[in-house]
Write a structure and sequence with these properties.
Chain B: It is a multi-pass membrane protein. The structure holds two protein chains of two kinds. Chain A is an all-alpha fold. Chain A has 15 helices and no strands. In chain A, helix 1 packs antiparallel against helix 14, helix 6 packs across helix 12 and helix 12 crosses helix 13. The chains are: A mainly alpha, B mainly alpha.
Chain lengths: ~325, ~300
């Protein structure tokens, strides 16, 4: 088990290095000179060629590209991601204040998607090929097919504008703070993110439950006289959790992708909104910081999936 | 968001006639597909969309980019079936022309994903050993990164453009097809006719193009269909965010970009409902077709 996890850890570290190389290469290809961009326009006309050359030298931009990459990587690993080209604030600081709302949205969204996926998935598995089964199949197909931004617009139209029940944007109302305000801002984005991701989990819960319900130990439990409820909850569900847990961990990236879109529609002040607005302001340093953060998040989730897999399933531990 | 639920009405019937003898695989497949009512309806709908896209200029009656400042933000009427947008452009005409762009981008991106997937999956299965483990590890990694976020990053650094988006979608959607082709290749590798071909001196390229790809074509067609659905959805999302197809060229996604203000959502639903429904129905239809194809190709695989 230790060797298996160590190998996975090594792979992930290697992949992270490959990603940093890809990002650095992309940034290097951009036409804009990051130094020239940091000099105020009025100074650019007054003989600053020497100044630019000097700054380039100080920042190591006249060195070979491999050395530049190394400087950049060492700084990035130490948490120095440079400064926003737009407002000069450290990128780490900008990202740090945005990560909370994104994680909040993702976790509540994940919870909601599981609350949709488990009951429906179990129902579909127990009544295979019934109307319930086809009904849930349509729900899950709709969840993966209908673009999340369109669901979000419909949600805003119905619940914010027509029924006037929920706020359409932002994370809180400063004039009226409190738990109720926080929740009312969270409901719509989180439910929509939850619905959009539920289809994937639903499918795995269903197929995993079908496998387990057909296993010998389930027949034994039934023969012993265990109630159908007990068979499902205590026996089959437990074992079917193994593949589902793995999927939840590996699906973190997709969850984040959905959150990025939802943040944009609901003006949710998270990393995704920061990243998308940075794209339009060509704030490269923020985008690079965002990219590294996402890479770490996704790779850690993959690693978590491996750890969960070994912890929950004794068969893997023997390897 | 990668795979789709497999079981839908029609599976049972499809299974029942799997034993009906005396027919070519194609004919059996077609018959099974026809039992899948939802998929057949989806094919009809999709043909309609394709026709609308092809004949967009004749059907629409308006230039999709013709600005008419005397008729801005008009509600649907006999003259403008789906109303007009903030610069007086005909929404119906833009919707039809957007179908061209959205379907085109979806097909191109999915095509790229299928080519990458077939190539890498085939190589992994054929060569085995370290090539196999490297390719499959890569597949896991690529699949765990969300295409939307990757495109945000790439568009942020290189600038948003349609080719960037197509390449990003193709690069990050290949593993679905790649895994399928690898699976087929592994099961074919030890077959006698493949060993015979190898013994006769066939190289990897010959084996791939003459033996593996034809045999893997049915599952590839299923994967390709699902990839098209995925790609159309991603195109609309990215264009909606402003990172894909750039205005004034209409795409279903960027037609919804204007709907990001509450006044438009509330007051001019025709601006966002029509393109939104068009994407949703198209992606659903393609997914249903993929489902039907899966049952037609291999009824056991569910």
């Amino acid at each position: 088990m230790g060797a298996y996890l160590a190998r996975r850890l090594m792979t992930n570290v290697l992949v992270f290095f490959l990603i940093t190389i890809a990002i650095f290469w992309l940034v290097h290809k951009t036409p804009g000179d990051p130094i020239a961009m940091r000099i105020p326009p009025d100074q650019l006309n007054s003989g600053t060629a020497e100044y630019i050359a000097q700054r380039r030298h100080e920042l190591g931009l006249d060195r070979p590209i491999v050395v530049q990459y190394w400087f950049w990587l060492v700084n990035a690993v130490q948490g120095d991601l440079g400064y926003s080209l737009l407002n000069g604030r450290p990128v780490t600081e900008l990202l740090a204040e945005r990560i909370g709302p994104t994680v909040e949205l993702m976790l509540v969204g994940l919870l909601i998607s599981l609350l949709i996926a488990f009951p429906l998935g179990i129902l579909a598995a127990r009544r295979r090929n019934s109307a319930w089964d086809y009904g849930t199949a349509v729900v899950s197909l709709g969840s993966v097919s209908i673009p999340v931004f369109f669901v979000a617009l419909i949600g805003i139209y119905l619940f914010s504008l027509k029924l006037q029940l929920l706020p359409a944007s932002g994370i809180s109302d400063p004039t009226n703070p409190g738990l109720l305000d926080t929740l009312s801002h969270l409901v719509l984005p989180a439910v929509i993110l939850g619905f959009a991701n539920s289809g994937t989990y639903l499918r795995y819960v269903r197929s995993s439950m079908i496998t387990e319900l057909n296993a010998d130990y389930v027949r034994t439990a039934e023969a012993k006289g265990a109630s159908p409820r007990r068979v499902v909850v205590r026996h089959a569900l437990r074992n079917s959790l193994i593949p589902v847990l793995t999927v939840i961990a590996t699906n973190m990236g997709q969850l984040l992708g959905g959150a990025v879109v939802i943040e944009q529609v609901f003006a949710w002040p998270g990393m995704g909104q920061l990243a998308v607005s940075s794209v339009f302001q060509q704030d490269y340093s923020v985008i690079v910081g965002f990219a590294l953060l996402v890479a770490i998040l996704v790779l850690l989730s993959n690693l978590l999936a491996d750890v969960l897999y070994t912890l929950v399933d004794p068969r893997v531990r023997l390897r | 968001m990668t795979d789709l639920p497999a079981d839908l009405p029609g599976e049972l019937e499809a299974r029942a006639d799997a034993s009906a003898g005396r027919s070519t695989p194609w004919r059996t497949g077609l018959r099974r597909f026809r039992r899948h009512t939802v998929a057949v309806v989806s094919v009809g709908y999709l043909l309609l969309v394709v026709a609308a896209a092809v004949f967009a200029p004749t059907l629409s009656g308006y230039d999709p980019n013709a600005v008419d400042l005397e008729h801005v933000r008009e509600a649907p009427s006999a003259a403008h079936w789906l109303g007009t947008d903030p610069t007086g452009r005909d929404v119906f005409s833009r919707l039809l022309h957007a179908a061209r762009v959205s379907l085109g981008v979806g097909l191109a991106a999915a095509g790229l994903a299928v080519v990458f997937g077939t190539l890498l999956g085939g190589l992994a299965g054929l060569l085995g050993r370290w090539v196999d483990s490297v390719v499959m590890r890569l597949a896991d990694v690529f699949l765990s990164f969300p295409t939307v976020v990757v495109t945000v990053v790439v568009a942020g650094i290189l600038g948003p453009s349609v080719p960037t988006m197509i390449i990003a979608i193709g690069l990050f959607q290949w593993p679905v097809c790649g895994r399928i082709v690898r699976g087929v290749t592994l099961s074919l590798r030890e077959q006698e006719y493949l060993l015979a071909a190898r013994a006769a001196g066939a190289g990897s390229f010959w084996l791939m193009t003459r033996h593996i790809v034809p045999a893997a074509l049915p599952p590839i067609s299923v994967a390709a269909t699902l990839a098209v659905a995925q790609a159309i959805g991603l195109e609309s999302t990215l264009s909606f965010l402003g990172l894909g197809v750039q205005p004034p060229t209409p795409s279903w996604g960027n037609m919804l970009t204007d709907a990001q203000s509450l006044t438009v959502i509330a007051g001019q639903p025709w601006l966002w409902l029509a393109p939104g429904i068009a994407v949703a129905l198209t992606v659903l239809a393609v997914n249903f077709i993929g489902d039907g194809l899966r049952d037609a190709v291999d009824p056991r695989q569910s």
